[in-house]
């Protein structure tokens, strides 16, 4: 393993007070430093989101479901799966937990007996402002020390990475893979 002390790759000793700013990057990951950084950032972001969301009784990912419901109104569970690029089993568990917490209710679809409509409850509408504030706090914590221009650059870079990964996923969906 190699200690990362390169400021460009996140090793600036002054970058994060109280945290170990050097990251052990395995030699096998040296050919993918950006991918390794994305993994580390995503893990820490989810961990911090979890800490913040726990204060309002949510787990990471549940707030994303609620955001879609608040924005779009009641949705078929299958549509939530598509909107959030989730899978049916995960969405079923998420909806069950949100239902048990009183934030959503499930009702049968009037047009499709196999489908459930998921709708936000009045209790969830009171939660919306808190979730929006938590997301603002998460954004602030994630971008501490960045200028507005740097924030814009970071967002553009992340959008570019997302577009590249989306294209790669789409091409793999159509790639039959190696012949056997």
Task: List the defining traits of the structure above.
single chain; 180 residues; mainly alpha; three-stranded antiparallel β-sheet; two-stranded antiparallel ribbon; globular
Instruction: Kindly estimate the percentage of residues that lie in beta strands according to DSSP.
Output: 5-15%
Structural class: mainly alpha
Span of the ends, CA to CA: 36 Å
Low-confidence stretches: 1-18
Count of extended strands: 5
Order of helices and strands: EEHHEHHEEHH
Structure, described:
- By secondary structure, the chain is mainly alpha-helical.
- Helices cover 56% and strands 10% of the residues.
- It is built from six helices and five strands; from the N terminus they run ββααβααββαα.
- The strands form two sheets. The chain has a three-stranded antiparallel sheet.
- A hairpin with a 7-residue loop joins strand 4 and strand 5.
- Helix 2 packs across helix 5.
- The protein is globular and about 55 Å long.
- The N terminus is likely disordered.
């Amino acid at each position: 393993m190699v200690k990362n002390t390169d400021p460009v790759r996140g090793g600036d000793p002054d970058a994060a007070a109280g945290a170990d700013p050097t990251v052990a990057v395995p030699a096998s990951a040296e050919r993918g430093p950006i991918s390794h950084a994305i993994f580390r950032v995503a893990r820490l972001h989810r961990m911090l989101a979890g800490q913040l969301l726990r204060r309002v009784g949510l787990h990471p990912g549940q707030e994303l479901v609620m955001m879609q419901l608040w924005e779009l109104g009641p949705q078929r569970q299958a549509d939530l799966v598509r909107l959030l690029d989730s899978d049916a089993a995960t969405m079923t568990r998420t909806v069950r937990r949100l239902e048990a917490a009183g934030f959503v209710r499930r009702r049968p679809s009037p047009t499709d007996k196999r489908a459930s409509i998921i709708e936000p409850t009045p209790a969830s509408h009171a939660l919306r402002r808190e979730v929006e504030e938590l997301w603002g706090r998460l954004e602030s914590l994630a971008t501490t020390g960045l200028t507005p221009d740097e924030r814009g650059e970071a967002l553009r870079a992340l959008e570019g990475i997302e577009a590249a990964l989306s294209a790669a996923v789409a091409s793999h969906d159509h790639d039959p893979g190696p012949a056997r």
